Amino acid sequence: MTPYKQQKSVKYYLRNPKTKIVTAPSLLPASLQNDTELYGRVSKLCMLREAVRERLKAQSKTEDLSRIGTVISAIETYLGELHWYISFYEDNREAFKELRGVEFIWKSAIVSRMYEGVNLTRPRFGFRSGNAGDSDGGNNGASGGNSGNAAANSSAGTSSAASRMIARSFKQRRTQSPSIYVELGFTLLSLAVTKSMSAYSKVSSLDTEIECETINAMTPGTQAVLDEEGEQGVEALKRASVELREAAGVFQYIIDHVLPQISTIRLGVPDLTPDIQYMLQMLSLADSDRLSVRVWLRTDKNQRKTPNIPANLLLGIQERYLNASSLVRTLQNGEFRSVSSDIQNYMRDGQIVILAQAMIYLAQVHSDNQKYGNAVGFMRDARELLNDVKKRNQSVHAKTAEMLLRGPIEPLYSLYRRNNDTIGFEQVPSSEDLRARLPSGRALISRALQYSPASIPSSGT
């Protein structure tokens, strides 16, 4: 059997949001612009924001994640000042009523461009407006109201062909809003996405990590060739798991502290909606659990004797992927059709591959218990699932499916069939019967790590 050398390239399923320039005069009402200390601090905030914008723009042009740490650092530094600014704004709402002209423009991490117009309201900074918005990406001004929230510009629609676009043709859809809370939400979303990207950069690919361990665990005597050998590799996996849990904590902060502030706003993109935030949090924790499975497989010397443990863990993880897929389907029709194909394919094929891996372990469980017909059935179904994914060449999971099929699947399938033909003489259950017998997956091991805004000293104003 050919040893499998771990892939170096990384393909993350989300794009990072991108944004446009904001200037200091647009963030302060005229009555406060004579305060030089305050104006200086707001100018610094805009400078930090520009650093974030440039780094997000540069990162969006490459799949090389070697400098993703600098993006995280820039976002975290800007967030510290942004939290201060929001606190100042909340303490001086009366003064900010006169503010005009600010627009925070962001490109979605979730959806592609859409062209079917939808009428949405557009308020000015921090306040709700009854005026109809212009088309997506416009810069028309807005007039007042007096709510503490703000809304965004118009939505749009597209044909279902958009959902089939590959990653390089994905055109990020733009939205804009004068709401500072929308700005906070997209900045936090950028932080969570970059933390997830950083986690991916440490382990190359979540799928092939588990796949390598599957080869080692399921085919005694066969060693996959790994770049992350020994204790150092385990520590890298643990650090990546922590970053995914940190990302989950940021998503939770958005849910708890940002979404209530923009609940009356309807943006033309679904990024800052409860369904999407819960979905992204669920995927972050599920992927963290996938790394936990890998750590367990590397460190537990008895793992070959207890294949039911990884089977149940993987079944629990694939259930989270199914739940995430169902959350996507709750989006409005226009938004769902425009969700990036990378996201939809990642969840669909990821769930299939993880289920197939769980079935490989279940086949071993049944073989060890001399239930040879079930062992053959589970391995048969795993082969079929992986072959389906392998045929989708553009899927990020296709290589994993191919490696699994080239690795432990065929020799084990032949072994289980031979045992059943010569020892067991059992009927092989149908796929429907086996699905009905799948045990319940274990609950998620990983828990979100709480995100706490940095404490920034006041400006003295």
Helix/strand layout:
Blueprint: E1 18-19, H1 36-59, H2 68-91, H3 93-96, E2 104-112, E3 172-177, H4 180-203, H5 206-218, H6 230-258, H7 274-299, H8 308-329, H9 333-337, H10 341-368, H11 372-390, H12 398-424, H13 431-436
Antiparallel strand pairs: 1-2, 2-3
Helix pairs in contact: 1-2, 2-4, 4-6, 5-7, 5-10, 5-12, 6-7, 7-8, 8-10, 10-11, 10-12, 11-12
Question: Strand percentage, roughly?
Answer: under 5%
CATH architecture of the largest domain: Alpha Horseshoe
Structural class: mainly alpha
Report the sheet with the most strands, covering strand number, pairing sense and barrel closure.
3 strands, antiparallel
Provide the gyration radius in Å: 25 Å
Tell me the distance between the termini: 70 Å
The structural domain count equals 2
Strand order, main sheet: write it out. Answer: 1-2-3
Give the rounded overall mean pLDDT.
Answer: 79
Give the overall silhouette: elongated
Helix run count = 13
Count of extended strands: 3
H and E order? EHHHEEHHHHHHHHHH
Q: Give the CATH level 1 class of the largest domain.
A: Mainly Alpha
Fraction of residues in helices? Answer: 40-55%
User: Which regions have little confidence, pLDDT < 50, spanning 5+ residues?
Assistant: 1-10, 114-169, 208-212, 220-228
CATH superfamily of the largest domain: alix/aip1 like domains
Could you say what the CATH topology of the largest domain is called? Serine Threonine Protein Phosphatase 5, Tetratricopeptide repeat
Pfam families: BRO1
InterPro entries: BRO1_dom, BRO1_sf, pH-resp_palC
Family: Belongs to the palC family.
Protein name: pH-response regulator protein palC
